[in-house]
Amino acid sequence: MSLTALARPSRALRLRLTRQLSSFSIPVIDFAKFRSAESPEGRKQTAKDIVNAFKESGFVYLKNHGVTPAEVQTVFQKSAEFFHLPSDVKNGLAWEDPRSNRGFVKVGRERVTQATDPAEIAALREKAPDYKETMEIGRDWDSVWKNQWPSETQAPGFKQNMLDFYETCHELHVHVMRSVAIGLDLKEHFFDSKIDEKCHNLRLLSYPAIKTSLLKNEGQARAGAHSDYGTLTLLFQDSVGGLEVKNPHTGEFVPATPIPGTIVVNVGDLLARWSNDVLRSTLHRVVAPAEKISETESLTPARQSIAFFCNPNFSAEVSCLPNCGDVAKYPPVNTEDYIVGRLAVTYT
Question: Domain named Fe2OG dioxygenase: which ranges (predicted)?
Answer without folding.
Answer: 198-312
